[in-house]
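Example 391, ligand calcium ion.
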Amino acid sequence: MEKIKKHLSILITSLFLLLLLSNTSIGMEKNIEMPQKDPSNLLLYEYYNYDNMTKDLQIYAQENPDIMKLEALGETYQGRTIWGVIISDNADINENEAGVLLMGAHHGNEKPSFEVCMYFIKFLCDNYGLSDTDNDNDGDINEDPVDGIDNDNDGLIDEDPDEKRITDVVDTTQIFIIPMVNPDGVEANTRINCAEPAGVDLNRNYPYKWEYYDYFPALYGDRWTGSPGTWNYRGENPFSEKETQAVRDFVIDQDIKISLSYHSYGEFIIYPWMHSSAKTPHEEFFISIGEGIVAINDYDLETGRNYFIPRLGGTIGTSENWLYSEKGILSYTVELCRTRAPSNPRVMEELCLTHAGVNLYVCERAQTIVKKNPTNTYNNLFEKMFSFLKI
Ligand SMILES: [Ca+2]
Ligand SMILES: [Ca+2]
Ligand SMILES: [Ca+2]
Ligand SMILES: [Ca+2]
Ligand SMILES: [Zn+2]
């Protein structure tokens, strides 16, 4: 009897662990609820809304015509323009420079994701072409550049940016930014878009391995993504949505090396494959760049993914899988913040500045990448035998 009890309890514990593990699904933000540490701060951070964003983008483009171009990429279901920004020297000309893509608000309720994009646009416009300046008036010039570290140990982080570095990045990179992929969702403060009759989770609407929904419906969460009205509804077809079409048409002909898609929350970054723990042929690139990013923002780089995505059964339809499989773009999800939309202005200011540093860093890394087309590699004979699955 004792033996049976013991076995039973082991069985129950394992089942419980399995349940826990299966809940940590990729592409779903972690549930880390951390209290704000500064109750004395009474002013709440003011996030952009769609109209304010549009107004600011138009002003920046007007004031910085040499380095910024604003493009209408398409229209949402509720008639809002999806804006794309190109920042580079001679922004009007495709100069065959290394490209970087930054995106916010695939999920409309993840507000910090567009704030970091808008901040970066302003940061580049404001600092471009300036001579080196002692921004904090302490007698030293550029002693604390934007890298997430208090280089001069004065208690302030990144208070004296390196102006020349910012100018160099703009001169040598083509930076593509879509601050709000899903403006209708932002205005409705909802994850999905506002398509009729049912909103779609845009980060489930990109192609790559959609046939797996038919092959492995239980493994790929058909229940959560397959029917209209569900929180992660993937849509009728890959690229069925106007917003994902706008992203596709903006980037398809560009030579983009690295992309960051901002979401919130959880303070971690992930990269393809997202539907499987199989490593891409570019695992070392992904880790190397990922380590550079987390050195700046102090997030977790999720690499040991065998533990939380099984070989089959992650997320299908993410922008990252598509950008990587279609164009070989080293694409990351960056889950910002410890809460979905922090209200503390100091938290948000620090977040935006830190990610200006992250964005500068990926622009610099983009210069060094020689692109190969992705092909699958296999770790062992077993994987090779089942390579027809092309996981
Ligand atoms: Ca200084
Ligand atoms: Ca400076
Ligand atoms: Ca400092
Ligand atoms: Ca610094
Ligand atoms: Zn998200």
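Summary: The pocket of calcium ion (ligand 4) is lined by residues 144-145, 147, 149, 151, 157-158 (CB under 6 Å).
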